[in-house]
Model the fold of this input.
Amino acid sequence: MNTNLEKISKNYYTTSIVILLAVVNILAYLNERSMLCLCVFLLSLCFINVYSENITYGILFSLFVTNIVFGGCRIKKELL
Done:
């Protein structure tokens, strides 16, 4: 099963879809003027790429971390 996951993650189309998803999220962060989320995304992407050569894993990890921060910021804004 591990080899199937590796094949899927290194597939050209899978990588392209994940990159497209990252670009859409970056545009959403810029639209919301959330520089914190953009910085968290870039820092987590750099951090995970030190440990993993697979860009698909790096982008997915960065999107996961950043969306947690982004969601927390939106909840904080709504409470105030």
In short: The mean pLDDT is 86. Residues 55-79 form the longest helix (25 residues). Residues 2-79 form one domain. The two ends are 47 Å apart (CA to CA).
